[in-house]
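User: Just a sanity check before I run the rest of the batch. Below are the structure tokens for the first item. I only need the designed sequence back.
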């Protein structure tokens, strides 16, 4: 349990960082547990990442989250990277250890699976082929999670095919790179579809994907959570597919971070969701 005799500090480093909803949700936890502490957005330019991470210990931070564009670069900076983060190739959470050294892990993997299971408890990754769109940092966490949970086949569609091929090499034969031009057909017989691209996010065009070939039984998930209902999720809902939004992934990974930083693991409750939801645009504009 976190000490109550000191002010607790954590934050998120990104560039830009002001869009991040992490301060809202972590500061809700401080209030929920009546702990003196705060979670701050830290706008860190890429060239300053090492100095900023090294400043965490002297400033008294318990750790920080990392967001775009720092997740990969931090691998070469922290003192220890756990197997999960190394395998994924990205650090989403840094922990300051008692001796001031830094360890890096990746909470997005578990955040993804816990979110799906909370919203769709009957979901099983081994229930059939999954189609993952995108091959960036978010995709690597999603694919890792699906492989670990026994997905028999992961069709990986990315605009830049070489990036999908690199990911497939890292994660084994169940991951099959697919050409961007074949993305609509790749949905045939799929049990699950996950968007991990930035498409559909506020300020970006919708994901260019025709759902006609997707079975009505397929589960559709988006890791984008601004807006909460992306155009992809709206299209899935209209044709009767079950869907899971990306907000829960953010909430679940934050709970894991709290356990690592402060020894307390909060739950993702409807109240927590509604606190963060209140700050999001409900639909794509
Ligand atoms: N819910 C959560 O907790 C959570 C966690 C992590 C990320 N996310 C969200 O997931 C999204 C992706 O994040 P990331 O870290 O994976 O980013 P990233 O590493 O920069 O990857 C971006 C991906 O989007 C694709 N893409 C970009 N523009 C595209 C376009 N015009 N058409 C088709 N594909 C395009 C890229 O394809 P190329 O390889 O061809 O460039 C790449 O696959 C962001 O919106 C982020 O906020 C959410």
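Assistant: Here's the designed sequence for the first item:
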């Amino acid at each position: 349990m976190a000490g109550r005799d000191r002010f607790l500090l954590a934050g998120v480093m990104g560039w830009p960082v002001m869009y991040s909803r992490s301060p809202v949700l972590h500061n809700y936890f401080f209030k929920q547990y009546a702990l003196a502490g705060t979670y701050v957005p830290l706008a860190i330019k890429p060239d300053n990442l090492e100095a900023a991470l090294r400043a965490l210990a002297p400033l008294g931070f318990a750790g920080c989250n990392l967001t775009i564009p720092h997740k990969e670069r931090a691998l070469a900076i922290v003192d220890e990277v756990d197997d999960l983060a190394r395998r994924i190739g990205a650090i989403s959470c840094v922990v300051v250890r008692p001796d001031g050294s830094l360890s890096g892990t990746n909470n997005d993997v578990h955040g993804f699976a816990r979110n799906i299971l909370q919203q769709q408890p009957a979901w099983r990754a081994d229930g059939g082929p999954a189609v993952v769109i995108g091959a960036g940092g978010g995709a690597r966490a999603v694919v890792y999670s699906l492989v670990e949970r026994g997905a028999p086949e992961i069709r990986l569609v990315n605009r830049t095919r070489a990036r999908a091929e690199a990911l497939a090499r890292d994660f084994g034969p169940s991951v099959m790179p697919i050409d961007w031009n074949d993305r609509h057909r790749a949905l045939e017989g799929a049990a699950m579809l996950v968007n991990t691209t930035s498409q559909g996010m506020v300020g970006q065009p919708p994901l260019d994907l025709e759902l006609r070939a997707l079975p009505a039984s397929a589960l559709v998930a988006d890791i984008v959570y601004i807006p909460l209902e992306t155009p992809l999720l709206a299209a899935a809902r209209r044709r009767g597919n079950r869907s899971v939004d990306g907000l829960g992934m953010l909430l679940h990974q934050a709970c894991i971070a709290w356990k690592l930083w402060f020894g307390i693991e909060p739950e993702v409750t409807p109240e927590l969701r509604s606190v963060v939801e209140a700050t999001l645009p409900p639909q794509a504009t």
